[in-house]
């Protein structure tokens, strides 16, 4: 048992997978000697060799494409995209191939790969380093999309992602990489890939978030508790396939819901959650479902980043409005 | 600085990957990259390259006397001839089926049979092919059935569930993306120490994509057993070869990745098979990737959805047709006494019968049920998709799902 | 005045723009002599020359990238992506550059480009030719996303898209290209890029659709009319920026809403519409908002395509359920 | 077939674009592509290529006697020297600011000053630069101010609103994507018959991207006035040059696009400017694109977020530092009597003062208001975004918006 940061937990999960499954290999830019720019792969090339922890040339489209080829031939490639803004060149291979190979061949070939990438802002990174493209990926049939919110969840969900026989996108909230430590048991136990986690129980309102925003939601819940508002906080964790039951159960109890999402508002994943609620939980609702999101603007450079990101103040405000309704 | 660097660069993977990647690097100083230091002076030649061109059999069926013996073994040549004829018979029928509304869009390989057949004949069954949509010549030789190919173009995923080349990639429609798949497969073979080679085919248009270049570049750095063949049929739909690339050859794109690039007459199946075989043998032997440009001509429309008369001169097509690969080999075989009119008649009949049997089997293939779109989406359908599955079932037509 | 198909209307709009604005140019694969695989650019190279109607090598990423460069230098490039499944390699340039250039440079440079592409299925096309990626594009800040549903709307909206000083994605429903003809006045009049159109007025339920699905929705409305259900049908037309007012006004009137979307369900654009309704129109609702969508599966090849696509039967069924509710 | 084709292919745009694109094609038979027919026989050489390497000034400051006179004009050289020194002074200060928490991540150009300065000096003001994040050497020479660059790395979009090179592209972070922008700009110049050239700079890592290749390939087909410079500083973060590409040079990637490729000592500002100038003049003159590989070495960390000691030998870095461009030119200037210790002291002082003034102005720059994220999103903010704007206003900090 050890106190680990999220990035250390990722490192442990990768090491566990490499050690126990000879078909697992890692590939990406600077993941070898350098251990990745965030050090998620620190020490793994030394330990498992440069054939299984593979530095690649700078070409995300090719990284994704060779991962598809490797996976089709029975390997389990775990590819790293260095920063979230560089996922885009990999999308074609992900959408047109990785997500479809099993279906196209009626199961003759399959694509058990994992795409790992940092996700989101909050660390004053340069341009194109703070994107949150999860909704695009969740919209793609054939992909699973997972975003952990803590070291323990990162460990268990990443192991599950690697073991999953189909392609999984695993987005690691950059701002959580070193934000806090948590006990993580490095025993190879995975967490389920089809479950939302109730991070805090409450009666009055359901707060829904994932990744970095979970902590803003929890902080807002603390603030609101002191005002007598009892928030239930749900960590989506696996966006696709979505565990709607846990969400609906909570909304049935509270009758109110606020969704927090770092990505730009329009057609973000929060919209999907709201749509599921109005489809299947309309009669539970005592108030409109609000979304607290990034604005529909280009993610600002560092100086204005703080005003773009959903804050505790914005979340608390939305919850208060939700409590006032009806 | 320059030549020193150039030579230093040949010690690939020197930095991090010594153990894994240097064992089999015996081709390190490949002859196609010649480093020459010229005399003193500010301007020196850093490196020079050459792209060779190979043709054994001329358009009129004359064999170059310098052709290696093993390339013209009678049994080999008869096999190549039969395979090309079979491909063409199938191809013509598929077009006819489309014209009568019994098949979807189809991409004919007319005039380019030597490329697919040359490659298919050069591969071993354990090798892996990542084809484009125009490579049934190679695929049929590897064991994909005509029925499977018809089922695919007939709009049914089962057509990519090949019973025989189980590890071959399905037809790739997004142009150029298959090169990376082959590179990844080749990496898997190298990692597992399997003596297998990945072969991929793309078009002259495909050679303009970034995907082609970045994947070949990566494969070259990793020195994986990969052979990339460009079927240069001179057209990318309506875009002529010279509007795809300002280069004198497409083979020279190999220079950008630091691999061997060869140009071959893709209408000469003897040379085609020979070059493919040499490249595959080199790859199997640890010599890394090769890029082959096979020069041919697309005698038909781009696909059945295209009308090439809109953008090109039929006269040019007629002239190019005179160089087509099957008649060329037939002339040579006949001259060598290896082929008779009687044999030709019999082969034509055999092919026609095989094609007819395939068509009958294709047309008799029962439709997939509605559930087919869910069954292979994941190893196991997530519980959350149950309602969608039920909705699809509820609206499936009575006949079990044929849409 | 002429009776035109949708693809002919596109052609007229392009010709009008080329004729009246010397900075407009078209680029794409096979758009010259061949007039584009769908003939949207038929005759335009002959008329305006190969410098302004430009055949490109086969490389979508580069086409989008050079369009950004052209636009930054004061041209108005209208690029064609040949089939919707090949938009993906262009996404990086679209998301990381086209949509941001004005913002990044505080308006010093801008990117008045249009990306045209066919969209959606229904014509038994080969693999990767029938995609509906509009939600991904609508999620991208800085882009406008437009999908016409008729020849006249295609004409007016495309002209507006070309005249817009910022990047616009213009997705043309493949199945409508030649489905029907309509009077189109080729007078250079554009249509507004921020408005939904009420295609049919009704009292009982609001049916929302765009592009190819509008016609399924209208057909369903006919069917339902004979059962005594009076549908209002809204053509979204411009997905981004979304005209929520028109939608909310209609839902206020009808109290019920069914959204039809061809793309896969999860995180599709229908979710955004549902989310807007539950945020701002909850109290109007007398029934859950249903979505009739493509399933979360890989778009099937031609044979099963018909069972994937939302059909009149599926839409009518959803409307009936919506009418039964509460 | 091969040489005939090769020659035919040089008639670019022959098919569709005759009028527009052939007027200025006087460089059509560029000397760097030599077509040689070898003797008869099945294997013939289709094409051969050479990549030359240029250096005038050795690492120890000795000038090659064959150096052209105009390349060593005293005023030119003093200008280059001052520009390199100014760049380095700025660079060092930016790193210091980052270390003390006053600047965000910064990418130093230490040791590579000759590349940016050589390019910047070779361009005209009406030309357009599409830089990467490491090209302030060129940008400062083109009129971007130090304050602007600091404001950018300080996390403020106003830093890309250059007052002077109004048409230059902003810094490009997604590696390789800027090549297409420059190609598109070059197309615009050609279309409008403007005598302007687009120049872009990328790294050795960038040369592995598909974007680099596909854009260069397209530009070559269109023969637009484009110059692409690879700053080969031997590292892409921690990835050494030889793990990016198996090629002997990066210049040879030009062969894949059919354009001229040249290798130059990027630490020799005389050669660097000369080669850049020649390529730009050729482009301006209708000769189409050139690819230049400038050999240098990244003496600093990749960025301030990087620690290069993790992955490379300081001893190698020390050796490479001996070849750096500024000391080299100083030695030569001093030997020629063009530069004194006194001049050096004065220059150092001037640069330090300029940098200090810039830093003061940067630190005094008031923050943007919350509205900055909406103001330039579109020419006009859509009405539908009004609530988001109001929400942002409501939560903006009291001080007007500095987050
Ligand atoms: C990435 C991508 N863009 C566009 C298309 C549409 N398309 C199909 S085939 C083709 C031309 C391909 O030409 P080439 O590579 O020469 O192969 P050929 O068809 O001649 O065999 C195009 C543009 C596609 N399939 N994939
Ligand atoms: C497409 C893309 N992938 C990854 C990155 C992250 N990254 C920033 S710089 C860099 C290395 C670039 O190396 P090189 O092209 O040699 O340029 P240099 O930094 O050495 O000047 C990487 C991987 C990026 N910016 N863009
Ligand atoms: Mg072709
Ligand atoms: Mg570098």
Overall description:
The complex is a heterotetramer, with two copies of chain A (326 residues) and two copies of chain B (403 residues). Chain A has 326 residues and is α/β, with parallel strands linked by helices. Chain A has two domains: 2-184, Rossmann fold; 197-324, Rossmann fold (3-Layer(aba) Sandwich), CATH 3.40.50.920. Chain A has twelve helices and 14 strands. Chain A starts with a strand and ends with a helix. The model of chain A has no long low-confidence stretch (mean pLDDT 98). Chain B is α/β, with parallel strands linked by helices and 403 residues long. Chain B contains 16 helices and nine strands. A seven-stranded mixed sheet of chain B has the order 1-2-8-9-5-4-3, with helices on both faces. In chain B, strands 6-7 form a two-stranded antiparallel sheet. In chain B, a hairpin with an 8-residue loop joins strand 1 and strand 2. The radius of gyration of chain B is 23 Å and the shape is globular. Chains in contact: A-B, A-C, A-D, B-C, B-D, C-D. Chains B and C meet through helix 15 and helix 16 of B and helix 11 and helix 12 of C. Strand 2 of chain B pairs antiparallel with strand 2 of chain D, so a sheet runs across the interface. The structure holds thiamine diphosphate (2 copies) and magnesium ion (2 copies).
Sum up the structure in keywords.
heterotetramer; A: 326 residues; alpha/beta; Rossmann fold; 2 domains; 7-stranded mixed beta sheet; 5-stranded mixed beta sheet; globular; B: 403 residues; two-stranded antiparallel ribbon; 16 helices; 9 strands; disordered N terminus; binds thiamine diphosphate; binds magnesium ion
């Amino acid at each position: 048992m050890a106190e680990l940061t999220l990035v250390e937990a990722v490192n442990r999960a990768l090491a566990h997978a490499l050690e126990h499954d000879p078909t697992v290999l890692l590939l990406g830019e600077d993941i070898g000697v350098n251990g990745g720019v965030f050090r998620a792969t620190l020490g793994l090339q030394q330990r498992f060799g440069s054939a299984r922890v593979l530095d690649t040339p700078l070409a995300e489209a090719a990284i994704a494409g060779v991962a598809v080829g490797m996976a089709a031939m029975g390997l389990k490639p775990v590819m790293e995209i260095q920063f979230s803004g560089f996922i885009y060149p990999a999308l074609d291979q992900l959408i047109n191939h990785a997500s479809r190979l099993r279906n196209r061949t009626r199961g003759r070939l399959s694509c058990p790969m994992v795409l790992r990438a940092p996700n989101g802002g909050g660390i004053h990174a340069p341009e194109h380093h703070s994107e949150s493209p999860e909704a695009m990926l969740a919209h793609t049939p054939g992909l699973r999309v997972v975003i952990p919110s803590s070291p323990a969840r990162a460990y268990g969900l990443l192991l599950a992602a690697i073991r999953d026989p189909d392609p999984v996108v695993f987005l690691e909230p950059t701002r959580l990489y070193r934000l806090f430590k948590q006990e993580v048991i490095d025993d190879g136990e995975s967490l389920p890939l089809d479950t939302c986690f109730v991070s805090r129980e409450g009666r009055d309102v359901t707060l829904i978030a994932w990744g970095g925003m979970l902590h803003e939601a929890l902080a807002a819940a603390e603030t609101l508790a002191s005002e007598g508002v009892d928030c239930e906080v749900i960590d989506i964790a696996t966006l696709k396939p979505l565990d709607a039951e846990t969400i609906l159960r909570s909304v049935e109890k509270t009758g109110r819901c606020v969704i927090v999402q770092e990505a730009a508002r329009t057609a973000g994943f929060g919209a999907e959650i709201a749509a599921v609620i109005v489809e299947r939980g309309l009669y539970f609702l005592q108030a409109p479902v609000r979304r607290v999101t990034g604005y529909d603007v280009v993610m600002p450079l560092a100086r204005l980043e703080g005003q773009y990101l959903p804050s505790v103040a914005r979340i608390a405000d939305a919850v208060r409005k939700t409590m006032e309704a009806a | 600085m320059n030549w020193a660097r150039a030579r230093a660069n040949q010690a690939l993977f020197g930095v991090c990957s010594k153990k894994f990647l240097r064992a089999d690097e015996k081709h390190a100083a490949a002859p196609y990259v010649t480093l020459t230091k010229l005399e003193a002076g500010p301007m020196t030649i850093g490196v020079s390259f050459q792209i060779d061109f190979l043709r054994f059999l001329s358009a009129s069926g004359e064999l170059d006397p310098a052709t290696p013996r093993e390339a013209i073994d009678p049994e080999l040549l008869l096999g190549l001839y039969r395979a090309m004829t079979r491909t063409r018979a199938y191809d013509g029928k598929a077009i006819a089926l489309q014209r009568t509304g019994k098949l979807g869009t189809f991409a004919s390989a007319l005039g380019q049979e030597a490329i697919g057949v040359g490659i298919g004949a050069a591969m071993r069954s354990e090798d892996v092919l990542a084809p484009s949509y125009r490579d049934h010549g190679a695929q049929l030789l590897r064991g994909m059935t005509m029925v499977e190919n018809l089922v695919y173009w007939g709009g049914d995923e089962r057509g990519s569930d090949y019973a025989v080349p189980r590890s071959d990639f399905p037809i790739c429609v997004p142009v150029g993306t298959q090169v990376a798949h082959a590179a990844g497969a080749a990496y898997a073979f190298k990692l597992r120490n399997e003596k297998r080679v990945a072969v991929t085919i793309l078009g002259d248009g495909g050679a303009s994509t970034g995907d082609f270049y970045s994947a070949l570049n990566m494969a070259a750095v990793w020195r994986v057993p990969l052979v990339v063949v460009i079927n240069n049929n001179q057209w990318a739909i309506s875009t002529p070869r010279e509007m795809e690339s300002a280069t004198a050859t497409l083979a020279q794109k190999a220079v950008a990745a630091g691999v061997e690039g060869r140009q071959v007459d893709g209408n000469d199946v003897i040379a085609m098979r020979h070059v493919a075989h040499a490249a595959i043998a080199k790859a199997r032997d640890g010599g890394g990737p090769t890029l082959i440009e096979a020069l041919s001509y697309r005698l038909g429309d781009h696909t059945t959805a295209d009308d090439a008369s809109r953008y090109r001169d039929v006269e040019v097509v007629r002239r190019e047709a005179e160089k087509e690969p099957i008649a060329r080999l037939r002339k040579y075989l006949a001259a060598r006494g290896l082929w008779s009119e009687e044999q030709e008649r019999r082969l034509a009949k055999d092919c026609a019968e095989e094609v007819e049997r395939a068509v009958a089997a294709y047309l008799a293939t029962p439709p997939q049920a509605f559930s087919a779109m869910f069954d292979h989406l994941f190893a196991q359908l997530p519980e959350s998709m149950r309602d969608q599955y039920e909705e699809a079932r509820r609206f499936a037509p009575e006949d079990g799902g044929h849409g």
